[in-house]
Write a structure and sequence with these properties.
three-stranded antiparallel β-sheet; 29% strand; elongated
Length: 92
């Protein structure tokens, strides 16, 4: 059986153009992804951001497609009980 592999590309923005230091949110996102089992495979530098290719492998997901749901029947028509005038009752 083939090994299941997920690939994800992330844009991580840097603090200063053409710099190496990531912004705090980008550094936090990368730290969270690596702690969840993602591995950094490739890193491409651009002036404003770093494009990172992340990959993880493991068991295939249990449900790849959602099951088909049957079409629900429409509501039955309402009877005429309580169909008086609108809000506040009758006029005086």
């Amino acid at each position: 059986m083939a090994d299941h592999r997920e690939v994800r590309y992330e844009r991580l923005y840097v603090r200063v153009p053409n710099g190496d230091k990531l912004r705090r949110t980008a550094a936090g996102r990368l730290k969270r992804l690596t702690s969840e089992g993602w591995r950094e495979i490739d890193r491409t530098q651009t002036p404003d951001y770093v494009r990172v290719r992340l990959e993880r492998s493991g068991h295939p997901p249990l449900m790849t497609t959602l099951p088909v749901m049957p079409v629900q029947q429409g509501r039955p028509p309402r009877d005429n009980r309580g169909g008086g005038p609108g809000r506040g009752g009758p006029r005086r």
